[in-house]
Design brief:
alpha+beta, Rieske Iron-sulfur Protein, Naphthalene 1,2-dioxygenase Alpha Subunit, Chain A, domain 1, 2 domains, eight-stranded antiparallel beta sheet, four-stranded antiparallel beta sheet, 21 strands, 15% helix, globular, binds FE2/S2 (inorganic) cluster, binds fe (ii) ion
């Protein structure tokens, strides 16, 4: 055996957390999650899953939305394979039971007079759903009224403003997707030449608590992208913030005073513990015409995203092969642990457990203050 490798520490695999093999998997339920975009929802019911629960989403044609657990109470056929009939109720395709947006059974074909269709045993389980900012949001907990509003997307308007939206399914946990979206140091390596990767410059990150979230503000980041950098003597820097908002929003904002502002809000839907759907809603304003900015954002955005998707799938495959996470952070991992702490605390508070309870997850959770300043080269 070779000596001198520091092998004194034997590998320890984390214990199971929520049955998910010691991985950072959390699902706070009393929050809004994006289910689809307004455009994705046509006249037919749309299916998706919310942390492994299949849902049928439909418009009730009176301006409301239905989000029913996609299992008919009659014989468990998926109502999503049926149709939305003109008065806005969902008709199961097997025996034709009909459900309104609240899950009430309003018709049972062939039932004799006097036998009410709307018996409680015939209710389909429903989630509250609402359309806001071009997104259909679903409340994570079934059969209860929401207690807050969906996350508001930023308003960027005026001449030179525009929006690009694209979607991607990632083979990773919600936490891994959120951390990746807000992780600066990987950009110089995984996205070398596209994003960062010129001569490193020293930048400072200031981490702050937000209401239901956490933010890192980056100071001194030179203007540029990949090989295109401002001249070394240039004092011009980006204004740059990375933010996380419970339960599943990552937001990256870049601005150059008087020239451009780009806010990329990434809305995540945990389809299952290791599969996460992400909508990238990029809203921007720039002095350049939108017809120039739009294709550039789309091309670069998708190129970067493909690299991230491959990395996240590879990371997940290793976490699963080794039966859990075993992370070792440094000061550069400025948001990942804070995101995990917030997710886990939100989940725990719903089950009545104290926030000081064991957080579980990646085994890398040394206590640290949220307010923090770190300087590094990137
Ligand atoms: S299974 Fe839906 S109506 Fe029979
Ligand atoms: Fe990335």
């Amino acid at each position: 055996m070779r000596a001198g490798c520091g092998w004194a520490v034997s590998p320890v695999i984390m214990g199971a957390v929520n049955g998910h093999e010691g991985a950072s998997v959390a699902f706070p339920a009393r929050w809004w999650y994006p289910a689809c975009t307004t455009r994705e929802l046509g006249t037919r019911p749309l299916t998706t899953t919310l942390m492994e629960t299949p849902l049928a989403i439909f418009r009730d044609r009176r301006g409301g939305l239905g989000a029913l657990v996609d299992r008919c109470p009659h014989r468990n056929y998926p109502p999503s394979l049926g149709r939305v009939i003109p008065d806005g109720v969902l008709e199961c395709g097997y025996h034709g039971w009909r459900f309104d947006a609240c899950g009430n059974c309003v018709t049972v074909p062939g039932l004799l007079d006097g036998q009410e269709a709307a018996a409680t045993t015939r209710r389909a389980v429903s989630h509250a759903a609402v359309e806001r900012d071009g997104i259909v949001w679903v409340w994570g907990e079934p059969e209860v009224a929401p207690t807050r509003e969906p996350f508001p997307l930023p308003l960027i308007s005026g001449r030179g403003a525009g929006e690009v939206v694209f979607r991607y399914d990632l083979d990773c946990s919600l936490h891994a997707a959120l951390e990746n979206a807000l992780d600066v140091p990987h950009t110089a390596f995984l996205h070398r030449g596209i994003f960062r990767g010129g001569n490193p410059r020293s930048i400072t990150a200031v981490r702050k608590e937000l209401s239901d979230g956490v933010e890192a503000q980056y100071l001194g980041e030179p203007v540029g992208m990949g090989p295109i950098r401002a001249r070394a003597e240039s004092q011009r820097t980006f204004d740059h913030w990375d933010r996380f908002f419970l339960p599943s929003i990552a937001q990256i904002e870049y601005a150059i005073e008087g020239w451009a502002r780009v806010v990329n809000t990434v809305l995540h839907l945990p389809l299952s513990p290791y599969r996460t759907r992400a909508w990238f809603v990029v809203r921007y304003w720039s002095r350049l015409p939108a017809s120039v900015v739009r294709p550039a954002v789309l091309l670069r955005g998708k190129q970067i995203l493909r690299q991230d998707a491959r990395a996240l799938a590879a990371q997940t495959s290793r976490i699963r092969a080794f039966g859990g996470e075993r992370y070792t952070s440094t000061d550069l991992d400025i948001l990942g642990n804070a995101i995990w702490r917030l997710l886990r605390q939100a989940e725990r508070s719903e089950s009545g457990l104290t926030t000081a309870a064991e957080l579980g997850g990646n085994g890398d959770r040394h206590p640290e203050p949220v307010e923090r300043t770190v300087t590094f080269n990137v």
